[in-house]
């Protein structure tokens, strides 16, 4: 129950606690701490901090952080207006975005310093830009979280949308010395196992020196059921033989559409068995059997490799904090904060794909449609499909993540007017993911398809059984000799997928404050040096591994022996309306790795990762100088506070891949201004204007240059010279504080953002190609001849296909509202707090449209507490939003409303012991996306509900 209020918040809280009728006096310059108890106490400190803040700032304090049913800091921050949470497929919050812009546009700081986390994002993706995953940070080790939505000169730059400072606990924070603990068991209703969670904190303070040690960890046995499509929805065409030897197949003449899969013109075994009088090989008209007209069948859309799936495994996480604080007198405060986190995942992801990609007729894989229904938008709603195959993909994930931060700092009141702050920081994070991927094929059978909340697939054989005739590849006896030769096996068997990422940050900051109360009347100035680096590596070698380790192995010759029953037998039980197959035969990964000597294979470094993205290194050295002035006066006998400042920042970037390296530099000037006016005693009006920046996405900057053909006409390259994203920000709003706890607030904001990029082509002199990372010293005989024919290096030009900044901008505008309301006049200890945000955008160029913006998001918490009992019910809602575009079609997220419950009871014993109960995601809200239209699921993941029972105490 530690909380740190800002100096002004502390003074306000003390005065209100003593006598609500007294006028609040200004806090002294040094930080004061007050102890808060319960959710009301944390709301009190948040209200007080907001009341005395300059600009538009919201804070969450320790009791709120530690006792809400929040799995990590991302969850805690989501209760702040304007903050949106990005969730992993487990439903757990992972990243945050502020006022609509994505996670890369929010600057995340730890104790005021830059950090970077090397983790790789959610399942099936990769963190490639400036995102910071927050799911390794447990709430128990932090005292406050502050979100600044308007920039000030003294803040580190880098957040177009906002600046988030996470403050770790320190010895001289409020609260008594001693030992605090929590022990919890979390029960997930999908996995049906109890997962231990724990936290311990010890602090000891003396007259001058204090130490705090904290540890928090969890072992989570998780399961997620879900559904996915790959990349797009697609259509098929009626296949025809190209020659009598059945060596190839293609679409009939005149077929339209994407044609990614094939309808069979010949009766298959299961079709013949279901239709008396029909023999295998008889001619079949798939248009007639489908019940559709030829044009509708030719363009009817089905999910591309649509697949029920599940993840099943463990995650271990432990985080530690050590903080030393030394105060030899009132004018000196020294601290050293060391934080370490380690997380590992060991889980299987298994997906049962309906094979509808390149299912060639000559490989015996084309399908026959029957009784197909299609909606008005062209999407298949139901049907029966003969000669279908299930193509299973099984991933075996082994992930390890580490994070270390060391942050010493000192604050010295040198004179009565001069305060000096000096800090240093170092963080390092490493992430390794080993993700071998094995694929195997069912025999042919009959598939029925029924669309719903997610599609339901049913198969004539049981996919959960290992004994239905699975093979490592699609096998088809083309020549009819009764034997399967090597050239009669088709498709992938095994993929090598390994990734390594490493981040490092270093910083030295020196800040000066001049004045008796520099936050009100005085000056601040300082210098900041930061160096941030991110190194990404990807390793493969699928072809080499297949040739040398798979083919000829016992697993290759006896693949069915390496399969076992499904890990789950109720797949989809948590999905409303699902009626498809309920399990997937599971590969024995330990035996497969042993049979192929997987652990001794030396993977080969690749230029790109399994997501098709270039990998490399980026290092940025940043020097910042700032000057900030604060002034206070009276207008019409009412207080007016002003803050104005400017920050100059210089950035040197080095961007490199395995083949090339480039450098770029730029300077920016970032002014800021804010004002707060006391319209009435309890009414504050605020306004601010500022410029802010976020540096360009590293994934767009890698100089992955390569020739576009055999000549010198074109080059494909990243652009290391991209300008940063910049924003001009305006805010106006205010609050009415009608009690020490309660207030209502409304803010209008507008943000014009530039710096968006598009795929582009620019013509440059041949001699300038090295600036794009292209080696022109050794280009080969053909290109040397082409160079000669166009007049030599000084005369020739080349088209560079890259990404460039566009001239257009996007304006985001919206409102944020907040209401904190005690209801003591109804029932003592009752109340609620709620906030809502609405955002709209206006893009001058369609290339600058921002994805991921929810028009509405809101949350509300109803609470009741007395001396022994506390309970809270919290609702979070986010409207669906365009996530990205696939083949020109919008993929947009589900509307999502999550409900959590938290309760605690102080036991009537001599020791400080409290029983806690939390219920997380009570309604099993999924995480997912629609494809173009609501009701056409692109992906959906159902994490279930988690119930936690625990014991907290102190002695």
UniProtKB/TrEMBL annotation:
Q: Where is the TonB-dependent receptor plug domain?
A: 50-156
Q: Where is this region: Disordered?
A: 1-29
What is the protein's major site of localization?
A: membrane
Superkingdom of origin organism? Bacteria
Where, subcellularly, is it found? Answer: Cell outer membrane
Q: Which InterPro entries match?
A: Beta-barrel_TonB (IPR000531), Beta-barrel_TonB_sf (IPR036942), Plug_dom (IPR012910), Plug_dom_sf (IPR037066), TonB_rcpt_bac (IPR010104)
Q: What does the UniProt keyword field contain?
A: Cell outer membrane, Membrane, Receptor, TonB box
Assigned GO CC terms:
cell outer membrane
Short name of any one Pfam family annotated for the protein: TonB_dep_Rec_b-barrel
TonB-dependent receptor-like beta-barrel domain span: 456-922
| NCBIfam families cross-referenced by the UniProt entry | TonB-Xanth-Caul
Annotated family: Belongs to the TonB-dependent receptor family.
Checking PANTHER family in the record gives: PLUG DOMAIN-CONTAINING PROTEIN (PTHR40980), TONB-DEPENDENT RECEPTOR-LIKE BETA-BARREL DOMAIN-CONTAINING PROTEIN (PTHR40980:SF3)
Q: Could you identify this protein by its name? A: TonB-dependent receptor
Task: Name the species this protein comes from.
Answer: Alteromonas pelagimontana
